[in-house]
Amino acid sequence: MNRKLRNSKLRFWLGAGLAGCALLVGSVLGGLWEVRTAEASAISGMGTLTGMVDAPKPFQAAQVYATHVEKDVVYMVYTAGGRYRAVNLFPGNYEVTVQKKGFEADVKKVTVKAGQEARVNFSLSEADADAVRKNEYAGSRTIRGDVALVPYDELYPPGPGRATAEKTCIYCHGVNFLPGNPRNEAGWNQALDYMMNRNEAFGATQGASMIPPESLQPGEREALVAYLVKHFGPGTPRRALRVDVEMPLDEEALSKAMYVEYRLANTDGMPRRRAQEPTFDHDGNVWFTERGTPSAISRLDPRTGTITDFMNPDPKGSPHGLLVDQDGFVWWAGRDVHLGRLHPESGEMVQYPVIEKGWHGHTPVLDSKQNIWFTMLPGNRIGKWDRATDKIALYEIPSQRGRPYGIVIDKDDKVWFAEFHGCQITRFDPVTEKFTEYPALTQPCLIRRLGLDSKGIVWYGVFSGGKLGRLDPSTGKIVEYDLPMPFSQPYDTWPDAEDNIWITDGGQGGALIRFNPRTEKFTYYPSPQRTDMPKVSITRDGAIWYNPRSSDRAAVGVLYPDVSKMQTLAAYF
Ligand code: HEC
Fold first, then answer.
1. Domain closes at, from 225, 241, 257
2. What DSSP string runs through 523-558?
3. Pairing relationship of beta strands 391-396 and 125-126 according to DSSP bridges
4. pLDDT at residue 272 above 50?
5. What does the alpha-carbon distance between residue 224 and residue 25 come to, in Å, rounded to a whole number?
6. Which domain holds residue 161?
7. From atom 23 of ligand 1, which residue's Cα is the shortest distance away?
8. What gap in Å lies between CA 408 and CA 391, rounded to an integer?
9. What is the pLDDT of residue 145?
10. pLDDT in tens, 217-235
11. What's the 551 CA to ligand 1 centre distance in angstroms?
12. Ligand 1 site residues, Cβ closer than 6 angstroms
Protein backbone atom coordinates (compact mmCIF):
# COMPACT_ATOMS: atom_id res chain seq x y z
CA MET A 1 0.00 0.00 0.00
CA ASN A 2 1.53 3.34 -0.86
CA ARG A 3 1.63 6.14 1.64
CA LYS A 4 -0.93 8.30 -0.11
CA LEU A 5 -3.50 5.56 -0.04
CA ARG A 6 -2.88 4.79 3.60
CA ASN A 7 -3.34 8.42 4.48
CA SER A 8 -6.61 8.73 2.66
CA LYS A 9 -7.84 5.59 4.36
CA LEU A 10 -6.91 7.00 7.71
CA ARG A 11 -8.74 10.20 6.92
CA PHE A 12 -11.79 8.16 6.12
CA TRP A 13 -11.59 6.54 9.52
CA LEU A 14 -11.11 9.80 11.29
CA GLY A 15 -13.82 11.58 9.41
CA ALA A 16 -16.55 9.04 8.99
CA GLY A 17 -16.06 6.40 11.61
CA LEU A 18 -15.13 7.93 14.88
CA ALA A 19 -15.56 11.66 14.63
CA GLY A 20 -16.81 13.16 17.84
CA CYS A 21 -15.74 10.28 20.08
CA ALA A 22 -12.44 11.69 21.17
CA LEU A 23 -12.10 9.35 24.13
CA LEU A 24 -12.40 6.20 22.06
CA VAL A 25 -10.24 7.34 19.22
CA GLY A 26 -7.10 7.75 21.27
CA SER A 27 -6.83 4.05 21.99
CA VAL A 28 -8.27 2.64 18.77
CA LEU A 29 -6.20 4.68 16.36
CA GLY A 30 -3.05 4.87 18.43
CA GLY A 31 -1.25 2.48 16.12
CA LEU A 32 -2.53 3.79 12.83
CA TRP A 33 -1.58 7.33 13.72
CA GLU A 34 2.10 6.50 13.48
CA VAL A 35 1.65 5.85 9.77
CA ARG A 36 0.52 9.36 9.09
CA THR A 37 3.03 11.14 11.27
CA ALA A 38 5.89 9.28 9.61
CA GLU A 39 5.28 11.55 6.61
CA ALA A 40 7.98 14.23 6.46
CA SER A 41 7.25 17.94 6.29
CA ALA A 42 6.93 19.01 2.68
CA ILE A 43 9.16 22.02 3.17
CA SER A 44 12.72 21.49 4.30
CA GLY A 45 14.00 23.20 7.39
CA MET A 46 10.54 23.23 8.99
CA GLY A 47 9.08 21.16 11.81
CA THR A 48 5.91 19.31 12.77
CA LEU A 49 3.71 19.38 15.86
CA THR A 50 1.17 16.67 16.64
CA GLY A 51 -0.78 15.42 19.57
CA MET A 52 -3.94 14.08 21.08
CA VAL A 53 -6.76 16.00 22.67
CA ASP A 54 -9.21 14.24 24.95
CA ALA A 55 -12.09 15.48 27.04
CA PRO A 56 -14.76 14.20 29.44
CA LYS A 57 -17.38 14.41 26.67
CA PRO A 58 -17.37 14.24 22.87
CA PHE A 59 -16.40 17.25 20.79
CA GLN A 60 -15.66 18.03 17.16
CA ALA A 61 -12.93 20.03 15.47
CA ALA A 62 -11.36 21.72 18.48
CA GLN A 63 -8.99 24.50 17.42
CA VAL A 64 -5.35 23.94 18.38
CA TYR A 65 -3.23 27.11 18.48
CA ALA A 66 0.57 26.96 18.34
CA THR A 67 2.28 30.33 18.70
CA HIS A 68 5.92 30.74 17.70
CA VAL A 69 7.02 32.90 20.61
CA GLU A 70 9.88 34.81 18.97
CA LYS A 71 8.29 35.33 15.55
CA ASP A 72 4.73 35.86 16.85
CA VAL A 73 3.42 33.55 14.14
CA VAL A 74 0.31 31.56 15.07
CA TYR A 75 -0.56 28.20 13.54
CA MET A 76 -4.06 26.83 13.98
CA VAL A 77 -5.27 23.36 13.10
CA TYR A 78 -8.38 21.38 14.02
CA THR A 79 -8.67 18.09 15.81
CA ALA A 80 -10.18 15.17 13.91
CA GLY A 81 -11.17 12.26 16.10
CA GLY A 82 -9.20 13.93 18.87
CA ARG A 83 -5.90 14.13 16.94
CA TYR A 84 -4.22 17.15 15.48
CA ARG A 85 -1.22 17.79 13.29
CA ALA A 86 0.44 21.05 12.20
CA VAL A 87 3.15 20.91 9.55
CA ASN A 88 5.76 23.25 8.05
CA LEU A 89 6.25 25.16 11.29
CA PHE A 90 9.17 27.53 11.78
CA PRO A 91 11.61 25.88 14.21
CA GLY A 92 11.56 27.56 17.62
CA ASN A 93 9.77 27.83 20.94
CA TYR A 94 6.03 27.47 20.96
CA GLU A 95 3.10 27.96 23.28
CA VAL A 96 0.31 25.58 22.45
CA THR A 97 -3.30 25.54 23.59
CA VAL A 98 -6.75 24.36 22.53
CA GLN A 99 -9.99 26.31 22.15
CA LYS A 100 -13.40 24.73 22.00
CA LYS A 101 -16.63 26.23 23.23
CA GLY A 102 -17.63 24.53 26.49
CA PHE A 103 -14.08 23.39 27.30
CA GLU A 104 -10.89 24.74 28.82
CA ALA A 105 -7.26 23.84 28.16
CA ASP A 106 -3.85 24.68 29.62
CA VAL A 107 -1.16 26.49 27.71
CA LYS A 108 1.85 24.19 27.16
CA LYS A 109 5.36 25.01 26.00
CA VAL A 110 7.27 22.99 23.43
CA THR A 111 10.29 23.38 21.16
CA VAL A 112 9.85 22.48 17.50
CA LYS A 113 13.01 21.48 15.65
CA ALA A 114 13.70 21.45 11.92
CA GLY A 115 12.87 18.11 10.30
CA GLN A 116 11.49 16.73 13.56
CA GLU A 117 8.14 16.12 15.09
CA ALA A 118 7.17 17.47 18.50
CA ARG A 119 4.22 16.10 20.45
CA VAL A 120 1.89 17.83 22.87
CA ASN A 121 -1.24 16.18 24.27
CA PHE A 122 -4.12 17.91 26.00
CA SER A 123 -6.86 16.90 28.40
CA LEU A 124 -9.68 19.40 28.19
CA SER A 125 -11.86 20.15 31.17
CA GLU A 126 -15.46 21.26 30.94
CA ALA A 127 -16.20 24.97 31.13
CA ASP A 128 -19.32 27.10 31.08
CA ALA A 129 -20.69 26.61 27.58
CA ASP A 130 -22.58 29.91 27.81
CA ALA A 131 -19.56 31.93 28.88
CA VAL A 132 -19.09 34.75 26.41
CA ARG A 133 -15.47 34.94 25.43
CA LYS A 134 -13.78 38.30 25.55
CA ASN A 135 -14.05 39.82 22.13
CA GLU A 136 -17.03 37.62 21.28
CA TYR A 137 -18.40 38.68 17.98
CA ALA A 138 -21.85 39.14 16.62
CA GLY A 139 -22.72 41.47 13.83
CA SER A 140 -20.41 43.47 11.67
CA ARG A 141 -18.02 44.79 14.30
CA THR A 142 -16.29 43.45 17.33
CA ILE A 143 -18.30 44.23 20.44
CA ARG A 144 -16.05 45.66 23.09
CA GLY A 145 -16.71 46.39 26.71
CA ASP A 146 -19.66 45.41 28.81
CA VAL A 147 -22.43 44.38 26.46
CA ALA A 148 -25.23 41.88 27.05
CA LEU A 149 -25.55 39.51 24.11
CA VAL A 150 -29.19 38.63 23.44
CA PRO A 151 -31.15 36.74 20.75
CA TYR A 152 -32.57 38.70 17.84
CA ASP A 153 -36.17 38.87 19.09
CA GLU A 154 -34.96 40.31 22.37
CA LEU A 155 -32.74 42.84 20.65
CA TYR A 156 -35.55 43.78 18.26
CA PRO A 157 -38.85 42.93 19.98
CA PRO A 158 -41.63 42.22 17.45
CA GLY A 159 -44.05 45.13 16.99
CA PRO A 160 -45.01 47.98 14.67
CA GLY A 161 -41.91 49.64 13.25
CA ARG A 162 -39.63 46.61 13.41
CA ALA A 163 -40.05 45.66 9.75
CA THR A 164 -39.37 49.27 8.74
CA ALA A 165 -36.22 49.35 10.85
CA GLU A 166 -35.06 46.14 9.16
CA LYS A 167 -35.57 47.31 5.59
CA THR A 168 -34.64 50.96 6.16
CA CYS A 169 -31.81 50.96 8.71
CA ILE A 170 -30.57 47.50 9.75
CA TYR A 171 -29.68 46.26 6.28
CA CYS A 172 -27.15 49.07 6.05
CA HIS A 173 -26.01 49.52 9.63
CA GLY A 174 -26.01 45.88 10.73
CA VAL A 175 -27.82 44.52 13.76
CA ASN A 176 -25.78 46.15 16.50
CA PHE A 177 -25.83 49.80 15.47
CA LEU A 178 -29.27 50.96 16.64
CA PRO A 179 -29.05 49.28 20.09
CA GLY A 180 -25.55 50.69 20.51
CA ASN A 181 -26.58 54.30 19.81
CA PRO A 182 -29.55 55.17 22.02
CA ARG A 183 -31.27 58.54 21.37
CA ASN A 184 -34.42 60.37 22.34
CA GLU A 185 -37.23 61.22 19.92
CA ALA A 186 -35.57 64.40 18.67
CA GLY A 187 -32.31 62.49 18.22
CA TRP A 188 -33.87 59.74 16.13
CA ASN A 189 -35.74 62.28 14.02
CA GLN A 190 -32.48 64.08 13.45
CA ALA A 191 -30.83 60.82 12.42
CA LEU A 192 -33.62 60.18 9.91
CA ASP A 193 -33.30 63.67 8.47
CA TYR A 194 -29.59 63.11 8.19
CA MET A 195 -30.07 59.78 6.44
CA MET A 196 -32.74 61.22 4.13
CA ASN A 197 -30.40 64.02 3.14
CA ARG A 198 -32.36 66.84 4.69
CA ASN A 199 -29.23 67.82 6.55
CA GLU A 200 -27.04 70.41 4.92
CA ALA A 201 -24.00 69.00 6.68
CA PHE A 202 -24.38 65.84 4.63
CA GLY A 203 -22.26 67.25 1.85
CA ALA A 204 -22.41 66.64 -1.88
CA THR A 205 -19.42 64.34 -1.65
CA GLN A 206 -21.58 61.74 0.08
CA GLY A 207 -23.67 61.27 -3.07
CA ALA A 208 -27.43 60.79 -2.89
CA SER A 209 -29.38 60.10 0.29
CA MET A 210 -29.02 56.89 2.27
CA ILE A 211 -32.77 56.38 2.39
CA PRO A 212 -34.64 57.04 -0.85
CA PRO A 213 -37.72 59.07 0.18
CA GLU A 214 -40.04 56.75 -1.77
CA SER A 215 -39.01 53.80 0.38
CA LEU A 216 -41.09 55.10 3.32
CA GLN A 217 -44.92 54.88 3.10
CA PRO A 218 -47.05 57.57 4.82
CA GLY A 219 -47.08 56.95 8.57
CA GLU A 220 -44.13 54.61 8.40
CA ARG A 221 -41.62 57.17 9.60
CA GLU A 222 -43.68 57.97 12.72
CA ALA A 223 -44.07 54.27 13.56
CA LEU A 224 -40.33 53.77 13.07
CA VAL A 225 -39.38 56.66 15.33
CA ALA A 226 -41.80 55.39 18.01
CA TYR A 227 -40.20 51.94 17.78
CA LEU A 228 -36.68 53.37 18.00
CA VAL A 229 -37.56 55.54 21.00
CA LYS A 230 -39.31 52.66 22.79
CA HIS A 231 -36.46 50.16 22.39
CA PHE A 232 -33.41 52.35 21.87
CA GLY A 233 -34.29 55.39 23.89
CA PRO A 234 -31.98 57.19 26.34
CA GLY A 235 -30.52 54.94 29.02
CA THR A 236 -31.23 51.62 27.25
CA PRO A 237 -28.77 49.00 28.50
CA ARG A 238 -26.06 48.11 25.98
CA ARG A 239 -27.04 45.02 24.05
CA ALA A 240 -25.84 43.25 20.93
CA LEU A 241 -26.88 40.22 18.93
CA ARG A 242 -26.14 36.75 20.13
CA VAL A 243 -26.06 34.07 17.46
CA ASP A 244 -26.74 30.75 19.15
CA VAL A 245 -26.31 28.64 16.04
CA GLU A 246 -22.97 26.86 15.85
CA MET A 247 -21.09 26.82 12.57
CA PRO A 248 -21.40 23.58 10.65
CA LEU A 249 -18.13 21.65 11.04
CA ASP A 250 -16.88 19.01 8.63
CA GLU A 251 -14.07 17.29 10.56
CA GLU A 252 -12.93 15.39 7.50
CA ALA A 253 -12.34 18.58 5.50
CA LEU A 254 -10.95 20.46 8.49
CA SER A 255 -8.46 17.69 9.34
CA LYS A 256 -6.51 18.65 6.20
CA ALA A 257 -6.52 22.39 6.83
CA MET A 258 -4.18 24.77 8.61
CA TYR A 259 -4.29 28.51 9.23
CA VAL A 260 -1.18 30.62 9.77
CA GLU A 261 -1.31 34.21 11.07
CA TYR A 262 1.81 36.38 10.93
CA ARG A 263 0.97 38.90 13.60
CA LEU A 264 1.88 42.56 13.27
CA ALA A 265 3.49 44.07 16.31
CA ASN A 266 2.13 47.36 17.58
CA THR A 267 5.14 49.60 18.19
CA ASP A 268 5.67 53.17 19.35
CA GLY A 269 6.01 54.15 15.71
CA MET A 270 2.92 52.19 14.63
CA PRO A 271 0.75 51.95 17.74
CA ARG A 272 -2.43 50.59 16.17
CA ARG A 273 -1.88 48.44 13.12
CA ARG A 274 -4.77 47.70 10.81
CA ALA A 275 -3.82 45.67 7.75
CA GLN A 276 -5.94 44.97 4.70
CA GLU A 277 -6.01 43.78 1.06
CA PRO A 278 -3.33 41.10 0.68
CA THR A 279 -1.85 40.66 -2.79
CA PHE A 280 1.25 38.93 -4.19
CA ASP A 281 4.31 40.15 -6.08
CA HIS A 282 6.38 38.14 -8.55
CA ASP A 283 8.86 37.03 -5.87
CA GLY A 284 6.42 35.22 -3.55
CA ASN A 285 5.90 38.11 -1.10
CA VAL A 286 2.53 39.23 0.25
CA TRP A 287 1.78 42.97 0.11
CA PHE A 288 -0.93 44.73 2.07
CA THR A 289 -2.10 48.20 2.96
CA GLU A 290 -1.54 49.37 6.52
CA ARG A 291 -4.51 51.58 7.28
CA GLY A 292 -3.70 52.60 10.80
CA THR A 293 -2.01 55.92 11.58
CA PRO A 294 0.71 56.32 10.47
CA SER A 295 -0.24 54.45 7.34
CA ALA A 296 2.06 52.41 5.12
CA ILE A 297 2.36 50.02 2.23
CA SER A 298 3.76 46.83 3.70
CA ARG A 299 5.33 43.58 2.61
CA LEU A 300 5.54 40.19 4.28
CA ASP A 301 8.01 37.55 3.21
CA PRO A 302 6.15 34.39 4.30
CA ARG A 303 9.34 32.31 4.09
CA THR A 304 10.89 34.21 6.98
CA GLY A 305 8.05 36.20 8.55
CA THR A 306 9.94 39.44 7.83
CA ILE A 307 7.73 42.49 7.50
CA THR A 308 8.86 45.68 5.75
CA ASP A 309 6.86 48.89 6.02
CA PHE A 310 7.11 51.66 3.42
CA MET A 311 5.72 54.66 5.27
CA ASN A 312 3.08 56.64 3.44
CA PRO A 313 4.04 60.29 2.71
CA ASP A 314 0.70 61.19 4.32
CA PRO A 315 0.56 59.44 7.73
CA LYS A 316 -3.25 59.69 7.70
CA GLY A 317 -3.46 58.69 4.05
CA SER A 318 -5.34 55.48 4.80
CA PRO A 319 -4.43 53.46 1.71
CA HIS A 320 -7.13 50.96 0.82
CA GLY A 321 -6.79 48.66 -2.22
CA LEU A 322 -3.49 47.40 -3.60
CA LEU A 323 -2.02 45.70 -6.67
CA VAL A 324 1.36 44.77 -8.12
CA ASP A 325 1.84 45.41 -11.84
CA GLN A 326 3.91 43.42 -14.35
CA ASP A 327 7.03 45.49 -13.59
CA GLY A 328 6.73 44.90 -9.85
CA PHE A 329 5.49 48.40 -8.99
CA VAL A 330 3.00 48.43 -6.14
CA TRP A 331 -0.08 50.64 -6.68
CA TRP A 332 -2.62 51.68 -4.15
CA ALA A 333 -5.85 53.64 -3.95
CA GLY A 334 -7.00 55.31 -0.76
CA ARG A 335 -8.41 58.20 1.13
CA ASP A 336 -7.68 61.42 -0.71
CA VAL A 337 -5.33 59.45 -2.94
CA HIS A 338 -6.94 58.28 -6.12
CA LEU A 339 -3.76 56.42 -7.00
CA GLY A 340 -0.25 56.05 -5.62
CA ARG A 341 2.76 54.06 -6.81
CA LEU A 342 5.64 52.53 -4.88
CA HIS A 343 8.93 51.33 -6.30
CA PRO A 344 9.80 48.49 -3.92
CA GLU A 345 13.54 48.63 -4.52
CA SER A 346 14.15 52.35 -4.15
CA GLY A 347 11.17 52.88 -1.81
CA GLU A 348 10.16 55.90 -3.89
CA MET A 349 6.47 56.75 -3.62
CA VAL A 350 4.53 58.83 -6.14
CA GLN A 351 0.99 60.06 -5.61
CA TYR A 352 -1.15 61.20 -8.50
CA PRO A 353 -2.77 64.61 -8.01
CA VAL A 354 -6.16 64.43 -6.35
CA ILE A 355 -8.95 65.37 -8.75
CA GLU A 356 -11.63 65.92 -6.13
CA LYS A 357 -10.97 65.74 -2.41
CA GLY A 358 -13.43 63.44 -0.65
CA TRP A 359 -14.04 61.20 -3.63
CA HIS A 360 -11.30 58.81 -2.46
CA GLY A 361 -9.89 55.80 -4.25
CA HIS A 362 -11.10 52.36 -3.16
CA THR A 363 -9.95 49.29 -5.12
CA PRO A 364 -7.53 49.23 -8.10
CA VAL A 365 -7.28 46.41 -10.70
CA LEU A 366 -5.25 45.83 -13.87
CA ASP A 367 -6.58 45.24 -17.38
CA SER A 368 -4.72 43.23 -20.03
CA LYS A 369 -2.78 46.32 -21.17
CA GLN A 370 -1.68 47.04 -17.59
CA ASN A 371 -3.92 50.08 -17.34
CA ILE A 372 -5.34 50.53 -13.85
CA TRP A 373 -9.06 50.78 -13.19
CA PHE A 374 -10.32 51.77 -9.77
CA THR A 375 -13.52 52.44 -7.87
CA MET A 376 -14.33 55.63 -5.96
CA LEU A 377 -16.95 54.91 -3.34
CA PRO A 378 -18.06 58.38 -2.18
CA GLY A 379 -17.10 59.82 -5.58
CA ASN A 380 -19.64 57.47 -7.20
CA ARG A 381 -17.26 57.01 -10.09
CA ILE A 382 -14.85 54.56 -11.61
CA GLY A 383 -11.47 55.74 -12.83
CA LYS A 384 -8.87 54.65 -15.33
CA TRP A 385 -5.17 55.38 -15.28
CA ASP A 386 -3.90 55.01 -18.83
CA ARG A 387 -0.41 53.58 -19.00
CA ALA A 388 0.30 55.02 -22.45
CA THR A 389 -0.60 58.62 -21.56
CA ASP A 390 -0.04 58.55 -17.76
CA LYS A 391 -3.43 60.32 -17.39
CA ILE A 392 -6.42 59.53 -15.20
CA ALA A 393 -9.98 59.62 -16.58
CA LEU A 394 -13.09 59.36 -14.38
CA TYR A 395 -16.53 58.02 -15.33
CA GLU A 396 -19.60 58.88 -13.26
CA ILE A 397 -21.87 55.86 -12.88
CA PRO A 398 -25.59 56.05 -13.77
CA SER A 399 -26.92 55.00 -10.35
CA GLN A 400 -27.06 57.99 -7.97
CA ARG A 401 -26.94 55.79 -4.88
CA GLY A 402 -24.44 53.37 -6.39
CA ARG A 403 -21.14 53.77 -4.53
CA PRO A 404 -18.80 51.53 -6.55
CA TYR A 405 -16.88 49.10 -4.35
CA GLY A 406 -15.27 45.84 -5.57
CA ILE A 407 -14.05 45.75 -9.17
CA VAL A 408 -12.82 43.07 -11.62
CA ILE A 409 -11.84 43.01 -15.31
CA ASP A 410 -13.02 40.17 -17.54
CA LYS A 411 -11.12 38.45 -20.37
CA ASP A 412 -12.43 41.00 -22.88
CA ASP A 413 -11.28 43.94 -20.73
CA LYS A 414 -14.84 44.83 -19.72
CA VAL A 415 -15.02 46.37 -16.27
CA TRP A 416 -17.35 44.83 -13.67
CA PHE A 417 -18.02 46.46 -10.34
CA ALA A 418 -20.30 45.99 -7.34
CA GLU A 419 -22.47 48.86 -6.19
CA PHE A 420 -22.38 48.96 -2.41
CA HIS A 421 -25.58 50.93 -1.90
CA GLY A 422 -26.92 50.53 -5.45
CA CYS A 423 -27.39 46.80 -4.70
CA GLN A 424 -26.41 45.74 -8.18
CA ILE A 425 -23.58 44.53 -10.37
CA THR A 426 -22.66 46.86 -13.21
CA ARG A 427 -20.62 46.30 -16.34
CA PHE A 428 -18.77 49.11 -18.07
CA ASP A 429 -17.62 48.78 -21.65
CA PRO A 430 -14.52 50.98 -22.10
CA VAL A 431 -15.01 51.03 -25.89
CA THR A 432 -18.63 52.23 -26.03
CA GLU A 433 -18.49 53.82 -22.53
CA LYS A 434 -21.89 52.20 -21.80
CA PHE A 435 -22.96 50.85 -18.42
CA THR A 436 -25.15 47.73 -18.08
CA GLU A 437 -26.81 47.19 -14.70
CA TYR A 438 -27.78 43.86 -13.12
CA PRO A 439 -29.85 44.48 -9.95
CA ALA A 440 -29.49 41.83 -7.22
CA LEU A 441 -32.54 39.68 -6.48
CA THR A 442 -32.57 40.81 -2.84
CA GLN A 443 -33.57 44.49 -2.63
CA PRO A 444 -32.58 46.75 -0.99
CA CYS A 445 -29.13 45.46 -0.09
CA LEU A 446 -25.43 46.15 0.28
CA ILE A 447 -22.90 44.45 -1.99
CA ARG A 448 -19.21 44.89 -1.28
CA ARG A 449 -17.12 42.81 -3.64
CA LEU A 450 -17.43 40.51 -6.59
CA GLY A 451 -15.35 37.78 -8.21
CA LEU A 452 -15.11 36.34 -11.69
CA ASP A 453 -14.54 32.61 -12.24
CA SER A 454 -12.73 30.94 -15.15
CA LYS A 455 -15.98 30.62 -17.11
CA GLY A 456 -16.82 34.30 -16.78
CA ILE A 457 -19.52 33.82 -14.13
CA VAL A 458 -19.76 36.79 -11.74
CA TRP A 459 -20.06 35.96 -8.03
CA TYR A 460 -21.06 38.46 -5.37
CA GLY A 461 -22.12 38.50 -1.75
CA VAL A 462 -25.31 40.15 -0.55
CA PHE A 463 -23.57 41.54 2.51
CA SER A 464 -26.78 42.71 4.17
CA GLY A 465 -28.75 39.55 3.38
CA GLY A 466 -26.46 36.57 3.93
CA LYS A 467 -26.60 35.42 0.31
CA LEU A 468 -24.13 34.40 -2.38
CA GLY A 469 -25.11 35.66 -5.83
CA ARG A 470 -24.27 34.09 -9.18
CA LEU A 471 -24.70 36.15 -12.34
CA ASP A 472 -24.30 34.57 -15.75
CA PRO A 473 -23.39 37.43 -18.12
CA SER A 474 -24.33 35.39 -21.20
CA THR A 475 -28.00 35.23 -20.12
CA GLY A 476 -28.21 37.91 -17.42
CA LYS A 477 -29.71 35.26 -15.14
CA ILE A 478 -29.07 35.63 -11.42
CA VAL A 479 -29.32 32.98 -8.69
CA GLU A 480 -28.85 33.78 -4.99
CA TYR A 481 -27.92 31.04 -2.51
CA ASP A 482 -28.58 31.35 1.23
CA LEU A 483 -25.50 31.00 3.41
CA PRO A 484 -26.09 28.31 6.05
CA MET A 485 -25.50 30.58 9.06
CA PRO A 486 -28.03 33.24 10.09
CA PHE A 487 -26.88 36.90 10.04
CA SER A 488 -24.03 36.17 7.66
CA GLN A 489 -22.43 39.09 5.87
CA PRO A 490 -20.56 37.80 2.82
CA TYR A 491 -17.83 40.33 2.11
CA ASP A 492 -15.47 38.98 -0.54
CA THR A 493 -16.35 36.16 -2.96
CA TRP A 494 -13.34 34.93 -4.91
CA PRO A 495 -12.75 31.76 -6.97
CA ASP A 496 -9.80 29.39 -6.56
CA ALA A 497 -8.21 27.53 -9.49
CA GLU A 498 -11.02 24.94 -9.38
CA ASP A 499 -13.73 27.60 -9.38
CA ASN A 500 -14.74 26.99 -5.78
CA ILE A 501 -15.87 30.32 -4.38
CA TRP A 502 -14.21 31.44 -1.16
CA ILE A 503 -16.37 33.71 0.97
CA THR A 504 -15.37 35.88 3.89
CA ASP A 505 -18.11 36.54 6.39
CA GLY A 506 -18.26 39.83 8.27
CA GLY A 507 -21.38 38.81 10.19
CA GLN A 508 -20.24 35.67 11.97
CA GLY A 509 -16.79 37.09 11.72
CA GLY A 510 -15.06 33.84 12.28
CA ALA A 511 -14.64 31.78 9.13
CA LEU A 512 -13.57 31.46 5.58
CA ILE A 513 -16.28 29.58 3.71
CA ARG A 514 -15.82 27.47 0.59
CA PHE A 515 -18.75 27.12 -1.79
CA ASN A 516 -18.57 24.31 -4.32
CA PRO A 517 -20.84 25.38 -7.22
CA ARG A 518 -21.08 21.82 -8.50
CA THR A 519 -22.46 20.34 -5.28
CA GLU A 520 -23.80 23.69 -3.93
CA LYS A 521 -22.19 22.78 -0.61
CA PHE A 522 -20.72 25.31 1.84
CA THR A 523 -17.76 24.25 4.00
CA TYR A 524 -16.82 26.40 7.00
CA TYR A 525 -13.22 26.91 8.12
CA PRO A 526 -13.45 28.71 11.50
CA SER A 527 -10.60 31.20 11.69
CA PRO A 528 -8.03 31.78 14.45
CA GLN A 529 -9.57 35.12 15.43
CA ARG A 530 -13.12 36.38 15.28
CA THR A 531 -12.97 39.15 12.75
CA ASP A 532 -14.10 40.33 9.37
CA MET A 533 -11.76 39.75 6.42
CA PRO A 534 -12.36 42.38 3.77
CA LYS A 535 -10.49 40.70 0.94
CA VAL A 536 -8.78 37.47 -0.04
CA SER A 537 -6.12 36.65 -2.62
CA ILE A 538 -5.67 33.02 -3.62
CA THR A 539 -2.35 31.48 -4.71
CA ARG A 540 -2.00 29.14 -7.65
CA ASP A 541 -1.58 26.36 -5.05
CA GLY A 542 -4.94 27.17 -3.49
CA ALA A 543 -3.77 28.99 -0.33
CA ILE A 544 -6.16 31.74 0.74
CA TRP A 545 -4.53 34.91 2.06
CA TYR A 546 -6.51 37.42 4.11
CA ASN A 547 -6.12 40.09 6.78
CA PRO A 548 -8.15 39.84 9.98
CA ARG A 549 -9.36 43.43 10.27
CA SER A 550 -11.53 43.90 13.35
CA SER A 551 -9.61 41.28 15.34
CA ASP A 552 -7.75 41.82 18.59
CA ARG A 553 -4.46 41.37 16.77
CA ALA A 554 -3.66 42.73 13.32
CA ALA A 555 -2.05 40.10 11.12
CA VAL A 556 -1.47 38.72 7.68
CA GLY A 557 -3.20 35.36 7.53
CA VAL A 558 -3.37 32.37 5.24
CA LEU A 559 -5.52 29.27 5.12
CA TYR A 560 -4.08 26.13 3.55
CA PRO A 561 -7.24 24.09 2.90
CA ASP A 562 -5.12 21.00 2.26
CA VAL A 563 -1.64 21.01 3.82
CA SER A 564 -0.61 17.95 1.81
CA LYS A 565 -0.51 20.28 -1.21
CA MET A 566 1.88 22.77 0.42
CA GLN A 567 5.05 23.12 -1.66
CA THR A 568 6.30 26.48 -0.46
CA LEU A 569 5.50 29.24 2.01
CA ALA A 570 5.81 31.80 -0.80
CA ALA A 571 2.66 33.18 -2.46
CA TYR A 572 2.24 33.40 -6.24
CA PHE A 573 -0.81 34.06 -8.41
C1 HEC B 1 -27.78 53.00 2.44
C2 HEC B 1 -27.18 52.79 3.73
C3 HEC B 1 -27.81 53.43 4.97
C4 HEC B 1 -29.11 53.38 5.37
C5 HEC B 1 -30.28 52.72 4.66
C6 HEC B 1 -29.16 54.06 6.65
N7 HEC B 1 -27.94 54.55 6.97
FE8 HEC B 1 -27.49 55.65 8.62
N9 HEC B 1 -25.60 55.94 7.91
C10 HEC B 1 -25.10 55.39 6.75
C11 HEC B 1 -23.77 55.89 6.55
C12 HEC B 1 -22.85 55.53 5.39
C13 HEC B 1 -23.48 56.76 7.62
C14 HEC B 1 -22.22 57.57 7.86
C15 HEC B 1 -22.43 58.82 7.07
C16 HEC B 1 -21.47 59.91 7.45
O17 HEC B 1 -21.65 60.47 8.51
O18 HEC B 1 -20.61 60.20 6.64
C19 HEC B 1 -24.66 56.77 8.47
C20 HEC B 1 -24.79 57.51 9.65
C21 HEC B 1 -25.86 57.39 10.52
C22 HEC B 1 -25.92 58.02 11.82
C23 HEC B 1 -24.86 58.90 12.40
C24 HEC B 1 -23.86 58.02 13.05
C25 HEC B 1 -22.95 58.76 13.96
O26 HEC B 1 -22.08 58.07 14.50
O27 HEC B 1 -23.10 59.95 14.14
C28 HEC B 1 -27.11 57.66 12.39
C29 HEC B 1 -27.62 58.00 13.77
C30 HEC B 1 -27.80 56.83 11.43
N31 HEC B 1 -27.00 56.68 10.31
C32 HEC B 1 -29.05 56.27 11.63
C33 HEC B 1 -29.77 55.62 10.65
C34 HEC B 1 -31.14 55.20 10.81
C35 HEC B 1 -31.98 55.38 12.04
C36 HEC B 1 -31.49 54.62 9.62
C37 HEC B 1 -32.84 54.06 9.26
C38 HEC B 1 -33.93 54.96 9.38
C39 HEC B 1 -30.34 54.67 8.73
N40 HEC B 1 -29.33 55.29 9.39
C41 HEC B 1 -30.31 54.18 7.43
C42 HEC B 1 -25.74 54.50 5.91
C43 HEC B 1 -27.08 54.19 5.97
1. 241
2. EEEE-SS------EEE-TT--EEE---SSSS-EEEE
3. unpaired
4. yes
5. 56
6. 148-241
7. 191
8. 20
9. 63
10. 889 999 999 999 999 999 8
11. 24
12. 168-169, 172-173, 181, 191-192, 195, 206, 210-211, 421
